[in-house]
């Protein structure tokens, strides 16, 4: 589905495992492939974060008129490092803008 919208990813960036919705909230599980051995070198591995963000595109009501890319981050607070599997909650924060709040936790519970 993502390739049809103009997103083309290699295997490291195809970690979205599960996506479900409750109202406007999205819940995600994403994992790095076994071939990635350097997760401990990152607060949150870029490929893992990108896989979480795929949920926003997949759940979008957009007609696919353009590629969505995050361009501004605020209030990023890492609490752990090195996760290879995460769960995330994504919720809109400004209606109609595409702005979202994302909370990410590793599978043991503490936020990443």
From TrEMBL:
Q: Which residues form a coiled coil?
A: none
Domain (PKS/mFAS DH) spans 1-112
Q: Which parts of this chain are annotated as the region C-terminal hotdog fold?
A: 1-112
Signal sequence, renumbered to the chain = none
Q: Which InterPro entries match?
A: PKS_dehydratase_sf, PKS_DH_C, PKS_mFAS_DH
Chain segments carrying region N-terminal hotdog fold: 1
Q: Name one Pfam family in it.
A: PS-DH
UniProt-listed Gene3D superfamilies: Polyketide synthase dehydratase
- This protein is called Polyketide synthase dehydratase domain-containing protein
Lineage of the species this protein comes from: Bacteria, Bacillati, Actinomycetota, Actinomycetes, Mycobacteriales
């Amino acid at each position: 589905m993502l390739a049809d919208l103009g997103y083309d990813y290699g295997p490291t960036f195809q970690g979205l495992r599960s996506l479900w919705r409750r109202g406007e909230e999205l819940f995600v599980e994403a994992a790095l492939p076994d071939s990635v051995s350097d997760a401990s070198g990152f607060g949150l591995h870029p490929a893992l974060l990108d896989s979480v963000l795929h949920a926003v595109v997949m759940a979008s009501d957009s007609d696919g008129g353009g590629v969505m890319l995050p361009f501004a981050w605020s209030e990023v607070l890492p609490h752990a490092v090195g996760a290879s599997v995460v769960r995330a909650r994504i919720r809109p924060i400004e209606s109609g803008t595409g702005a979202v709040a994302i909370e990410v936790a590793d599978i043991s519970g503490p936020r990443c």
